[in-house]
Design brief:
Layout (H helix, E strand, L loop, with lengths): L5 H40 L2 E8 L4 H16 L3 E6 L18 H9 L17 H12 L5 H10 L3 E5 H7 L11 E3 L1 H9 L1 E6 L1
Parallel strand pairs: 1-2, 1-5, 2-3, 3-4
């Protein structure tokens, strides 16, 4: 009796293919796991609807611009964080306490603005006349004052962070700053900045 060899060949071919897939399966699973890990890393770095601002300046006009952007973005539903460092800390001060400070810290405290109300303008300050002129013109045009913008920013949930390092260097005590603020280092800002679509230095 004669038997055809075709079915055997097909069976062997199928077995070889299954064996080949089984041999490649561990490598494929390993590549899939690596891709999933990379995808998870990309998800963590994907920008969100956030705005992160560094407020370095203690000039009234520049700080006004920072708060206009911050409150505008917050009103549009974005999460906003403002990181106040060095001269920007003057915006958050409510008083000046010279007790316990070094000579240089005292000198710096005396020469720096004691609160947002005494910030100079970056140009044409003229010993404070320029800042008063700007505030008067803003009032005439019904533009919200800096203090009003700070209050609005708080109502809108803008996160305000006082730079811990700058505060220590300049000898600014927590009691000299407005209540309810966060203190943090550069890692705090960078964590917000990495998740933000917009990061600005003012």
């Amino acid at each position: 009796m004669e038997h055809s060899t075709i079915p055997d060949t097909r069976e062997r071919s199928l077995e070889d293919r299954v064996r080949g897939v089984e041999e490649r399966l561990p490598a494929l699973e390993e590549r899939l796991a690596a891709l999933q890990e990379r995808l998870a890393g990309i998800d963590e770095r994907t920008a969100e609807d956030r705005v992160a601002l560094v407020v370095f300046s203690g000039d009234l006009d520049r700080v006004l611009a920072a708060f206009v952007i911050a409150t505008g973005a917050a009103a549009m539903g974005q999460q906003v964080s403002m990181f106040f460092t060095f001269w920007g800390l003057s915006v958050l001060k409510k008083s000046t306490d010279l007790q316990g400070k070094s000579f240089f810290q005292k000198a710096m405290a005396v020469m720096s603005p004691g609160s947002s109300e005494s910030l100079p303008v970056s140009k044409m300050n003229y010993f404070g006349v320029g800042a008063k002129m700007l505030r008067t013109m803003m009032k005439q045009r019904n533009v919200t004052s800096l203090e009003g913008m700070i209050a609005l920013a708080r109502e809108l949930g803008v996160r305000m962070i006082a730079c811990e390092m700058s505060r220590d260097v300049m000898g600014i005590k927590p009691s000299e700053l407005q209540d309810g603020l966060e203190c943090g280092g550069v890692a705090t800002f960078l964590a917000d900045s990495l998740k933000s679509r917009t990061s600005l230095f003012i």
